[in-house]
Target: 4-hydroxy-tetrahydrodipicolinate synthase
Amino acid sequence: MPTDHRSPAPFGRALCAMVTPFTQSGTLDLDGAQRLADRLVAGGCDGLVLSGTTGESPTTTDAEKAALVTAVREAVGDRAALVAGVGTADTRHTVELARAAEKAGADGLLVVAPYYSRPPQDAVEAHFREIADASGLPLVLYDIPGRTGTRIEPATLVRLSGHPRIVAVKDCAYDLLGTQQVLSRTDLAYYAGCDEQILALYAIGAAGYVGTVANVAPELFRAVLDAFDAGDTGRAALLQRRALPLVESMMAAGLPGTVTAKALLGALGLPAGPVRAPLRCADRATTEALLRTYGELAAGTRQLQV
Model:
């Protein structure tokens, strides 16, 4: 049973679901990835999640995923934890990716529930246990049924919490009751995976967040957590609300966060590049709107000395 009000933070509190930069011709941009990773860590990120959904894992090769971990590790050294996304719909393939990520220098693994085939809960549990047994790295289980079609049920998470290498959950289930059930019965570290829920989950004991908006504003939600930890819950709530327009424009405007994050990064002159098909790059009007919203937020946060 947990002994504190807050779950442990094995990879730090403030994690960015980093985009995977590509060149304009669509090849992997390792130099850009290193520059972006260095900027994110300097901006306050404790950890980086590579090759997650935001990192376009469905359209990067196994070799690219391993090369990305190696390059980013070279750039950030021991200043940040690296969590490698290795989840697929195939248990054998996921095991291969887990071992490759460990060899490349990752500190942990992000493993999504198997998608499309929609296995029952006993099969989901067996899937995660096989991956946890396959390497020496700790696992973050990624619960995002809106994309996978398969929930990691709270009871399943409670059972899996007994495995020594299953240590955390990235929570995109939108089930506050289920989250509290697991937090109250296990020592699993919960990370908010939806930017609009960062403060809400942190307030009930989550470890931190894995954010997409952090690609363009790495200091933003860290300031929310810092304010809350300092006991200034009013300021924390204000900062969370101030972030809402950017969160809405990036995450709830009908385009994937990968597309909007890359559009905004590119407009700011930062490494990103295009997205890979079947995704399509944001059009000019969308990019300009994102840039306006970002500018308004930046001006407001300067006034608040964030």
User: Anything to note?
Assistant: The beta strands are 14-17, 47-50, 81-85, 108-112, 139-143, 166-171, 189-192, 208-211. The chain has a mean pLDDT of 95. The radius of gyration is 18 Å.
